[in-house]
Fold each of these.
Amino acid sequence: MTHDFSTRAVHDGQAFDPTTGAVIPPVYLTTTFVQKSVGDLRNGYEYTRGTNPTRDSLQVQLASLEGGRHGLSFSSGLAAEDALLRTVLAPGDHVLMGNDVYGGTHRLVHRIFVPWGVTLSVVDMSDLDAVRAALRPETKVLWVETPSNPLMTISDIAALADIGHAAGALVVVDNTFASPYLQTPLALGADVVVHSTTKYLGGHSDVLGGAIVLNDDDLASRVGFVQFAAGAVSGPMDAWLTTRGVKTLSLRMARHCENAQAIAESLVGHPALERVYYPGLPDHPGHELAARQMRGFGGMLSITFRGGAAAAKKFAESTTLFQLAESLGGVESLVNYPAEMTHASVRGTELEVPDNLIRLSVGIEDAADLIEDVRAALG
Ligand SMILES: *Cc1c(COP(=O)(O)O)cnc(C)c1O
């Protein structure tokens, strides 16, 4: 019988150690495994770049939460993306991605795959007609990120899966912002889910990681070959820290959503602000779609300042609980100035973000304290 989400997060891939009864599976800090005789392996374990029990435990846990048959974990989100793209792309192929995807994803394709002969174009993924028009016969990958970063645009995964499949493209969803607690793209028709587990899945800003989850056996074994042959695997300690974080994902995400909603509502109409971007607000253009496609609105929100870049930067440097740092998804709240921080790499491209924009990663602290911090920094 299959269990519900929170039960799976705690138990799947996390069986106790049969030799000692240790409740927590050990961290297998080993690079190699003793063979019984030449080539006769114990449970298939030979060398940690190929397989390691701690990485296996994470991969099973992540696949279970995304509702996929196969999970593959990597040393970072970008390593996971790179392994997937190397597996499926060849010179002459075209990649179509959202015009507000994670800057590092755009950089990976634009600076590494394009010089190899792949072509790239970007489109507003929330505009389905624009997506249909931008697909080409040679489009191999449709890359979707929803909610997007930093404008929290919501794209219709089920509709995009249909459109992408009709054009013969592999439909990939970067599910980092939502996490599988809020959204499971495979169930909506996507072929592949990509994660930076560095963010909500790990959840404590202490470990980098990435993952691919998918159902197709043949594609999984091809990505698995790249994982092994190119070697960007997660180390055992990193994998273990991530499994530990994932066990509390449900509790954390529920609190992230609650806090972000409270902060967003407290900011609406503030005279210093031009706009609040949060899908949980009824006037957000993606609100109804998010309510249908997600099980909550997430912990990320952005605000734009009437006072321009100077006001935005001053705010980012004035909060105290919200610490000025890149990244997101940890238990502690962070503030980020995308134009010069997370999105500096897309300056001058079609992905450039407004310079009066601030992005907040709302942590799991007490909402009243966070609201007070933000209000004080707004002056
Ligand atoms: C951080 C991030 C990535 C990249 O992951 P790393 O673990 O930093 O390599 C990819 N996509 C999104 C949406 C991210 O936020």
Amino acid sequence: MRPTLADIHAAANRIRGVADATPLVPSANLSDLAGAEGLLKLESMQPIGAFKLRGALNAVAGLEGAAGVTCCSTGNHGRGVAFAARQKRMRAVICMSRLVPQAKVDGIRALGAEVRIVGNSQDDAQAEAERLEAQEGLAQISPFDDPLVVAGQGTIGLEIMAARPDIGTLLVPLSGGGLAAGVALAAKAIKPSVRVIGISMDRGAAMYQSLRAGHPVAVTEVPSLADSLGGGIGLNNRLTFGMCRDLLDDIVLVTEAEIYRAMQAVYHNDRLIAEGACVVGIAALQAGKLDGKLADGPVATIITGRNPDMGLFTRVVTGQDVQLGDVTVKGERHGA
Ligand SMILES: *Cc1c(COP(=O)(O)O)cnc(C)c1O
């Protein structure tokens, strides 16, 4: 059940030429914050604007002859599955909650997939994907809790370690844990001393709460600047809970105000359009929450996606207030 380094190499062969070889670029801002060489792995350069294409391509590759595919998604996984299904001329039905930004819904429709908007949480969307699996015979691809998806995301770890075997610490955005589990598995298989730290937003940090409880727990899903990190890990989690428990050295949580400041920093200093979900590592550094937690050597983080709601993004980078459900993040100009 648990993927191995060999599975990650096999995934790398399957996705080659479509979803691999994203740039690993130096960041003066990350270097300053980390007090060590700082590197950004630009998964935002993927054809769908997010790393999830890796796992989706790897999972869909094994579905020759299926009637079609379905999944629940906070947006980027659905886009990856839609892309992979279109390549195979396969039907794709993507289930999402009303919390998913319209830009992500539009991106999925543009790839020719059917979209179902159901309920207010990932759990509601997942129930619909399960119904489609049972009633219409579509193959369901979990956004994270699937060995092929974890192996696909793990190819990011292979690429980082191949480019820079001297990496000391990897800061990995953490939601369902497919990314963190895959990257940690690959990186530690290659270099056991590498430190891998998962970062989540403090409101609805499903993996963090579950690891603390010792078993998967449900969390309340609320609007967040890191919308791609929303949702639970599944009460019947089979894979990523155990892998994150065994492979992550630490998990750190950041607030919405910290994510806000990090989105500004990445935009103004690195000149990147990055979702709130991908700047959480930088947010943790800016907030001093990683003091004493970094290993010797370069620090790399993964810019996981570039698909924010652009209206919200513009408000953040221009220093305006943003409203997230009943929480207001006070506007603050970058560098003020
Ligand atoms: C899905 C996603 C993540 C988190 O990945 P998990 O495998 O669920 O932990 C982080 N950033 C972005 C942009 C995502 O789409």
Amino acid sequence: MDYISTRGSAPALNFEGVTLAGLASDGGLYVPREWPRFSIDEIAAMKGLPYAELATRVMMPFVKGSLTEDQLARLCADAYGSFSHDAVTPLTQFNEQHWLLELFHGPTLAFKDVALQLLGRLFEEFLSRRDDHLTIVGATSGDTGSAAIDAVAGRERIDVFMLHPDGRVSDVQRRQMTTVLAPNVHNIAIDGSFDDAQAMVKRMFGDTAMTGRFRISAVNSINWARLMAQVVYYFAAALQLGAPYRKVAFSVPTGNFGDVFAGYVAAQMGLPVEKLIVATNVNDILHRALSNGDYSAGTVTATDAPSMDIQVSSNFERLLFLEGSRDGLALADQMSGFEKTRAMRLTNAQREGSAALFTSARADRSDMQNAMHWAAEKCGEIIDPHTSIGLHAARAAGIDSSIPVVTLATAHPAKFPDAVESATGQRPHLPARVGDLFEREERYDRLPGDYDAIAQYVAERATPSA
Ligand SMILES: *Cc1c(COP(=O)(O)O)cnc(C)c1O
């Protein structure tokens, strides 16, 4: 499979190339040149497969030429063996119409593990072929940092430098990063905000003194391999609810548009999807874009669902490209306009194309609390604040009652105990596998919010590229 950039001027790459590159050299994102499509019979034959085997079946068309089926199967078995539930992403029921897809049984209790556990293993496979070394640099305000650290801890060819704003992540979130003591894991608390940390990471990607010596890579959801791994659980859930002979709708708590974009990919591959409901909190740029074409960034409001507190959704560009007649140069113009003014209108083609599959809803603080309360009182399910936004949107979407609606549960409630307790009166407990988090030894360094200090720190500890 070949991959092309959404901005039309970077070279096409194969799967190995896009996995190691992350962002395309023209600033765009990689998408497959065409969608592989399964027949009804092929989808029917996937029913009942163990998760790792289903994952191999669904992802194989995307990795052809870079991995054999045996290699992919081995990586999937290993990655999904790290989950604490045999079904990996089990489906539970709220009521006659509403279902919950639990994506939080990985090592760090959020759905990001599903993709990052595989991505860490893909990196290792491709780096060992090239006898090369990777330096991952990231900034995190929450779940990505811990999921990335867990996925690469102890891997010889990778160093990870993760910046978090000192004192501004929750204790659970910080400890999930700083108690990983492997020598290739470097946690840095910086004196500043998340935006300061993010700005320094961006600067490093453009610093040729650094990129000339080290193969620097990101692990955020611009990486195609992450989206690809997330396609699998849409198949897993729909197959349990009657696919390919019955349509299913999905409601997805959305920030960077990665998770819900994977649902769009599943539909392009032939999975019968009725609707994808994009659920946002009050940071609602995507809801405005999908409901009236207004894609304009404001300022971020902090909410109880911090992983969805975003201004700009990087993966939305992929949808704009695909629904905008795949015209990369036109999109490059549209995006450079947006980067200057922080605002743009979707074209008619982009709006009409998106409306075929997507709908959206926005949840404020009381919508979130009501949804958590309803799930606890009426269904005996404790859900986290992010998931509650999805559930609110699922119930508000007006989907025909004959169609099952699956809300994606993106985090374990114990990651956000205070918000859950205030809505439900019940305090969720950490699962046994991380129950000793608060007894573990922590290790991290504190640095000033100063680019040169960070760059020097990384340069002293990273391994140069081959
Ligand atoms: C990252 C995250 C989201 C948002 O997912 P996107 O792919 O960025 O849209 C939602 N909920 C939780 C708990 C997350 O960690």
